[in-house]
Amino acid sequence: MLITLYQRPLNTKICFLCMVLGLFLAQGGQGQEPANTNQADNETLPGEQDETIPGSNTPTESPYESRAIRDKSLLAQSLPDETLWLDTAHGKILAMHRITEAKSNFGTLILLHAAEDPQRWPASLENLRVNLPRYGWETLALALPQKTPPTIPARSFSSSSQSLENSEDQESQDDAPMSSIASISSSNSPGISRELLITAYLEAAVNYLTEKNQLNFVVLTDNSSAYHSLTYLLSKTDTVPENDDGIEDPLQAIIILNMQHQEPLTKNELESVFGLTSLPMLDIFFTADHLQQQAARKLHRAVAMRKKLENYQQVALNEQPQVAADDFQSFLVGRVRGFMQRNAQGIEMNKESPEDTKSLQSSK
User: Fold this and answer.
1) Which residue from 61, 63, 54 is spatially nearest to 160, judged by alpha carbons?
2) 261 by DSSP, 3-state: which?
3) Contact call for residues 86 and 208 (beta carbons, < 8 A)
């Protein structure tokens, strides 16, 4: 009995000490866990630090001045066989030259459209640009400044989206020719009028064709660019059929596509455009024949009769189906091709010169 009474308090004390020690160890372990967690968060792998720091702390500056310049540069990289940069007094411009796919070369069709981005050209113009070379007509497309440039609202970027855009621009910077990007012309250039830009663009295009000895071309322009572009080209065209050397002027015919019905040509502008009576002209209307279009068509026809144009044709394509860019048998391609074959077809001939180059002389 004495032994039993003596051992019971001893076991109670041992159990109490074990409980206290267990609680102490549990509290100590919980206090050390946050420190270990923070240490694990601060530890990064060797490759992780390089990926996070450039986007958040040191954003890369974009190599392009605007989105339009970026789009043109990417277009030039995607179509290296068709795109070229032309030098002008106001920088470089992007042009799209598609050579003939036939045995004969009848001439070049210069397409002019008031759109800063060639990717946004309407399907009708792209249909002509791509498919006319199948029939012996080369195409040279130029995007001219718009009469009213669209305003792009400013946007605020978060750190993640800004980091993503900067990384994409950095990848594009490695592939794009920096010498071309740095001097690309834009219609938003301060202090430069639209008329001066169009004149510089056309002068560069004509000089390019002259260097290639392409001395027989037709100009196709929309109504928004018709006044400035044709005023310049007609000022460089002689009123006599042939020059002293027996070779006709390069400009053989004019095609006007009345696509921007919100920018109709005025009476004074039409009198300037219809200034050369001997030059064949095809005047095409696309939109529905409502009252506004009826008035525009009557005005065009009246000015043409008053200016006594010898070969003026007006066509309304109201009932035609929508043109697809890859349709090489579209009605528009056939109509434009037939007009050029009758009025502007040239034949390739050897030019007697020390350089033994080639030129195109009209066969009319």
Assistant:
1) 54
2) coil
3) yes
